[in-house]
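Researcher: We're teaching a course module on how sequence relates to structure. For the next exercise, students receive a sequence and then see the predicted structure as tokens, so they can try to spot secondary structure elements on their own. Here is the exercise chain.
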Amino acid sequence: MKLLMLGRKKHSRVISTLGRLLELEKMEYGALYIDDCTEKQLIRELKSAELYLLCAERVKAADDEPAADCTVEMLEAIAAGYLSANKGHFVIYSTNPSLLGDVYYGEPAVQSIGEAIAHVRREKRISENNKLMHDARRIISEAHLSFSSKGFVEAVEYGMYRETQAFLQAGFSTETENGEGVPLLSLAVRNGDIEICRLLMSYGASMNIIARDRCSSPVLDAVIAVKPGIAELLIDGGADLNFKNRNGQSALIVAIGARMEEISNLLIDKGADLTIRDSLGMSAYDYAKLFSLADIQKKLEA
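Model: And here is the predicted structure for the students to work with:
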């Protein structure tokens, strides 16, 4: 977003100060002195910007005062007309807003450089959010997905990274579920899509959200899908590795029961609770012994 600052030469100190502050904000800006430009230059600069800040003391001369400079007054009138047609995209800087007259009645006015910078920051944030929303809608539309929770679920299910990111940028919730009550993170885990898992996590997806179809957590889903890399990613991200399913089984019990030695070792190394017993009263050690997993038994005994 480009900001254009307009004013007369006598406003140069304010404009230069604002310019230095905007550089710290890493914001693109331009400055134009109305009493030192042509009509063609003014119109070109007005069209090149998206946000405007007008330094003014008096937009038009009082009835009993003749205009000091007709050319400058004309250029200010052109700027006033252009800015009025772009309501919501400009702010007036004036130490005495009461002198602005009827031209900008009801328009935002600030009386200090601090207020001006705050306004610009706010407008920049709004502009960036609007651009993200616009780009997100375009990406989703080009992929022939509906701009809805259903489309979001489809993007995750089909491993469409760019489109999934677009839905997230558009503000869709990471806790969105499919028709069976399976959250997006669990869908990505079950698909073995570690990149979409990372993406959802970066947008604050809950590490412990429960999939209602099988009463499983993301970590438990990673174990069932035999995805140790994803299980480790989730655990390192703060997921609870001791969640128990309907049968009272933890991820470790499920892993040992399915003879998944790699994931079992990972869960033990990550601090899984070894004392948990399922609804049958069996612990991880009991299952290791039952299925003759000697290496796991020794590790558990140690």
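Model: If you want an answer key for the exercise: The CA atoms of residues 58 and 98 lie 9 Å apart. The chain has 14 helices and five strands.
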